[in-house]
Amino acid sequence: MSEDDPQKPPQNRSGKEEQTPKPPAPESVSLLKGNRPARILLCDDEPTVRDCLRIIFEWTFRDYELAQCDTGHATLREVAHQTPDLLITDCNHVGLNFPDTIPILFKMQTRFPILVASAGLSPEIREHILSFPTFDIALLDKPFTVAQLRNAVLQFLGPNPRQTQHLISLARPNRTARIVLLDDDSTARDLVRTMLSLWFRDYLLIECTTGDEAWREVTRHTPDLFITDYGHTGYSFDELLHRFYRSRSKFPILLSSLYVGACPELQQRLLALPGYSIELLNKPFPLESLKSQVLKFLAPANPAEN
Fold this sequence. Notes:
The chain folds into 2 domains: 29-162, Response regulator (Rossmann fold), CATH 3.40.50; 168-300, Response regulator (Rossmann fold, 3-Layer(aba) Sandwich), CATH 3.40.50. It contains 11 helices and 14 strands. Helices cover 36% and strands 20% of the residues. By secondary structure, it is α/β, with parallel strands linked by helices. It is elongated. The model is unreliable at 16-25 (pLDDT under 50).
């Protein structure tokens, strides 16, 4: 190789080859917290998962420090050593499971956002995890896409992180509010889910696409609010009402429908049903109408806390 060989690595004055620094990946987002890099703690007992997340972070973000651990006890030690800006954790791992660490973290009087990335969480476990209003917790179902992980991280550490203290709490005494949403239109579900997340906190949203799914969820845990369309597959709305009545399940119902809004006779019949608290929200509806209807049923127990 000659001195003029373009393939020869550049050398410094000492004759040693210069190490060209690896540039950050294009479109990477800075996670800088003031004048320091963000501190991220990752806990997962699967080495492959940790390696995958580390690589995704390297190519998606910059200005961060990533610490890794594989047990619940190790997580507590890391938190005690230095409070992270974000904890990313699986729900089940060696030693203490994540739900078991929450009360310990509470006693440590340390607060930071938590992203629980796990698979196969039951509705009961999901509700339990989200029932700690002093922690800002989000769930990310495995397997997830790179875009989903990126968006989940940015909601906590991005240029405009979500400010949950400005959201209205729907918490019931000592627990989160439970909302069941039934609609076979994915666009309608996406709209309701998005708007609720922009207005409220301290709630668990269970989404269903059929009347049968909704019936199973209601019988598993009575919701604080049932948001439903009128027409869907499986049990019809009328059949669901009949089943609710026979099981003596009592909860408010927000009926969002285009069909009912065009049928005054049906509106009168539904609103006259005894023993039910039903409100109609005609599609397409103004977004503020959805917000006001939810607050009508789930107004904060102590408005001063919001």
